[in-house]
What we know:
Elements: H1 6-13, H2 19-31, H3 33-49, H4 57-73, H5 86-106, H6 114-118, H7 124-129, E1 133-137, E2 143-146, E3 152-155, E4 160-164, E5 171-183, E6 190-195, E7 198-202, E8 206-211, E9 217-224, E10 227-231, E11 236-239, E12 243-248, E13 254-258, H8 266-287
Helix pairs in contact: 1-2, 1-5, 2-3, 3-5, 4-5
Amino acid sequence: xxxxxxxxxxxxxxxxxxxxxxxxxxxxxxxxxxxxxxxxxxxxxxxxxxxxxxxxxxxxxxxxxxxxxxxxxxxxxxxxxxxxxxxxxxxxxxxxxxxxxxxxxxxxxxxxxxxxxxxxxxxxxxxxxxxxxxxxxxxxxxxxxxxxxxxxxxxxxxxxxxxxxxxxxxxxxxxxxxxxxxxxxxxxxxxxxxxxxxxxxxxxxxxxxxxxxxxxxxxxxxxxxxxxxxxxxxxxxxxxxxxxxxxxxxxxxxxxxxxxxxxxxxxxxxxxxxxxxxxxxxxxxxxx
Length: 288
């Protein structure tokens, strides 16, 4: 293990690591397979050491130094048929005592969900973060496409929509700049759309969001189902069919009204125009 990573591991295991700390640790683990193996072994001993009494820092520091010397000279594999030698026992005790120090140093209370820690592999969150993102952009014409969960998105012109290649099991997180009409499949997982300083949460419903960069507000018009609209201050409004929520960019306020206009059904008009164009194109091909 490289010098300087002891405290970093302690922060992560105790739940006190910042995002920067986690990134540094993940990068170090991915540099070498041996680093990941070392961390997994340390994590197992960490859980065991929670039941031990905290020892003094001087004794633990000395044990850690002894362990680093022993670990550098000991072979990686141990024959299970051979009895443990005093040197091997000393190395194991040194590592356990070291991790006790980390607990004492970083954990304000002794209650840690060991099961939760052990069931979550170190690289699981990193792999989830690394899921490929797909961005659909339109220029002078709208576009209709389907998401991995079979939900249908009608993206208006001069808009941008981003979503993951594979949705998370806890939330189907997406983002929008511009305007889009959503027909969301209900699969039991919340569907979220971030637009400017707002977040729209649904499970299965149809609705329209309009929030271009130059707009002074974001509007959410619900056609079917229930939608929750919130801002960065965690203020929320619940919308149902024929209701529209509006977020004001200038004062960050949220409001709810009933709507009568159908301006948000632009996508239906666009679909009709597209069909007409295709029919005309086919007729021209037949004539020629």
